[in-house]
Each structure stands twice: as structure tokens, then as C-alpha cells.
Write a structure and sequence with these properties.
A hairpin with a 5-residue loop joins strand 3 and strand 4 (about 80-85). This protein folds into 2 domains: about 20-380, BirA Bifunctional Protein, domain 2; about 385-495, Rossmann fold (3-Layer(aba) Sandwich), CATH 3.40.50. With about 500 residues, it is α+β, with helices and mostly antiparallel strands. It has 18 helices and 20 strands. The longest helix is centred in the N-terminal third of the chain and has 20 residues, at about 20-40. The strands form 5 sheets. It has an 8-stranded mixed beta sheet. The radius of gyration is 29 Å and the shape is elongated. Helices cover about 40% and strands about 20% of the residues.
Length: about 500
Amino acid sequence: MAKTKAFRPKARRPRGFEDRSAHVLRAERALVSAASAVYEQWGFEPLETPAFEYADALGKFLPDEERPNEGVFAMQDDDDQWMALRYDLTAPLARFAAENFQDLAKPFRRYQFGEVWRNEKPGPGRFRQFVQCDADSVGAPGPAADAEMIALASEVMGSAGLSEGEYVIRVNDRRLLDGVLERLGDAASEKRLRVLRAIDKMDRLGLEGVELLLGEGRKDESGDFTEGAGLDADQRRHVLSFIEAGQVDDALTGAGRNAEVLKRLTQAFGDTDAGKLAVADLETITSVLDVLGKSDNWTLDTSVVRGLGYYTGPVFEAELLAEAQYEDGSPIRFGSVGGGGRYDDLVSRFTGQAVPATGFSFGVSRFAAALSALKRLDAAKADPLVIIVAAEKDRMADYFALAADLRGAGLRAEAFIGGGNMGKQLKYADRRDADFAVIIGSDEREAGEAQIKDLKLGARLAAEITDNKAWREDQPAQFTVSRDQIVSAIKARLTGG
């Protein structure tokens, strides 16, 4: 009888998901820690909501979709109710705020970071699972709350190691967009999403590309055709004039630039109800940000749309202006790494009463990757690592004790447990990017000493020294200390002593 072959599953990642390595995780954790410190300082409290929410709680506020269960990973629980993995952190916040409304101090100021999942077509840099970090104020009416969020976004940029001029917070108001659509007439109302999508592509396609999308449509370089909003020439000119209101002389910066844009917006939309409210709120936002010393960190930008689902007032995006370079020397431009705005209708889905809210969110993975390319976030670097070489297999207890002593002194240390000779262990230390290797063999043990190899210095000297004889005779990266001086000797090397 033939022997049944054992089933061996193929080792493979699900499409659209990624494995994140140690250096990526450290960068992300450092970024989250920096942002969380800002949120705490500004009086926000942490909150953790579950990964799953009932699908009807997410409702129509799925990304760019009107149907529940579209764009999410959903399943039925044991009582046949549909649950879905959260696609962002805002919809769960709305559910939490509604469920606990009477017990919450309002405004309810919370921050949260965690994984979110989206059942969308994956692509380059577009994953189905990623980490977001949010801060929100629920029950906070008025433009002052929006100004605080914009200032908070600026503070997060600074906490991540960015200087003024390396980022900008671009601000618009969805009610200005409503004013544009109001001018287009009732016939254009059904074209709202396509008009907004066209404006949202201003930074990538420019005015010419936007005009094509406002009209019959646009064919990209690959030959794919995107159907347009079908606006006539006069309607297209009206939308483009709105976008151009935010395109002022480059010589104008900071408060002067924003004042000029506000002047233009007042002239263009002062006769629409939505436009009047938006301009008045933007004036208040401007005054608050001026007082907070943020005049040079933000700018009014009429091309900012910020999603199509639930924003009802001011919207903003945090954009990186700093550039890094690819290996071939070409520039890496990062664009938007986060944003937010006012969403006054989200909690009311549950409560039936208006609950104003505003928030800021950034994608941790995208932002951390950009900061890594810019060589920011020093905290993302791992602490120096010490490897204790297991030179004598019957002395493992001694090596574990030494590692414990090093950890007790605040160092990062491990005793090697993988087996193999000293050469293999030192190769392991190199692959781990360890800073030091401590060797205590029989000779060192009997003498009460230890050999310490400064691996980073050794690698640097090996690259610099061409005279092998001088290398063998000098060996400056390896030295001997007494057993009770191991900790102090390593710390002295780390501090340059």
C-alpha cells in the first residue's frame, strides 16, 4: 500500500498583507510614542476599541462606498449578525461615543493607534492591513476646535523630528466646495462625487488634468480612461476659478498668503450661504493659529478635498515638503502623510441628535517609512546589543548570569543559545548587528577576566586598515578587562570614554 504523502502547506503571505521587520517596527513604535506624548500633553486620553465592529455600525461610512460590507473583511458571528474588521479608527469612536454618551465628559478627547483592515485591491504601497494613529474631539463645536486639531497636527510633525519648512498643513473647508456645487445648479448635484474626485487630483494632475476630469474624462499614460463629471465649459471654468483662488504669488508666505486667499474666497463665495460660513470659520482658525505661533506651518489650499465620506466642515492634510533621494539620485517626494477635519454627522447616526466632532489621523507605516528615508526619528534605532559568547557549553549558567548583570545595568544583552563554535557565534553577532561580543573561555575564567570585542569599531577598522600585520599586532577593537569591569568598560566605550 502506497504511503500517504504528508501535506505541507506552502509558506506564503496573503496578498495585500506584509511582514514588518524589526527596524520597521521600531520606527513605527518610535513615531507612535512621539505622537502619543503630544496627545497626552494636550489633554487627550487613550482609548482602545475592538478590531471587530457590527457591520451596520459602520454603515455607509465605508471608504468611498454607500453599501455596508463593501470594502471590509466581514463574517457572521454565532447569532448570525454580521461583523467587520474596522477599516479606520473613527467609525468605532463614533459607536463608542454614542454607546457611552451620557457618561462621557464632553468634549470627549481621545487618541488611539492600532491596526485597520480594508478589503480593497492591493497595489504598490497599498496594503490591506496597516496602522493608524488618531486624535479626536467629540462634542466640540466651532472652528476653535478645528484650529486646535490643525495645531496638534503641526505639533506631531515637529515631534517626529521635522523642522519648519519641511512640512505644511494644507487647509480647506468642505462648505466652500458645497458653495461651488451650489453655483453649478441642481443638475450638477448628482455629479458631486466626480467633481470632488477631480479637484482632489489637483496636486497630481494639475489644472489641465483636473479640467479633463471635470469634462468628458481623461486618458492616462497607460491608456486607461477615467470618465469625467460632464460639466459644460462655464461650469468647468467656475470650478477651476475656485481652485485658482488658492494659487497665489509664491512670494507670499505664512499669514500674508492666507490673508490673500481668504480675501479671494470672500469675493468669490460671499454670496452663498455655505461659503459665508466657511470663510467666517477660516478667519477664526487663522486667528487661533496665529496666537499659537503656527502661521508659517499651515496654508489655505482650495484643492484639498480629504475623502468623500463624512467630512462636513474644515478639512486638512499634513504634507511632507522635505525630500530624500533614491540610490540613483532622483528625489523622493512623500506628499500627504495624514489629515483630518470636521465630521458632525457621524455620531448622530446612533443618537439621532447632532454631535459635533473633529479629528486628525495619520498612517503610521507610510509616515514612518518617509521619516526613515529622511533619517529622522533617532529613537527608532535599537539600543546597543551585547552578545555573550558561549565558549564553554557547561558554563551556560555563568553566561546567563552575566547577561542578567548587563541588563540590570541598563544594557541590552543576550547569552548565545544556538550552539556552534566561536566563529559561528561571532558571525551571528555580526548578523544581529551587535555592538559587542563578550568572550569568557577557560583561560579567561581562570584569570577572572573577559575578552570584549568592539564589533562596530572592528568592522570600521577592517575597512580602513590594509596592512594585515598591523591589524594582527594592534587589535584595538579587542581588549581584556577583569570580570567586574565588563559593564563599566562597555558603557565607557558607548559614551566615548
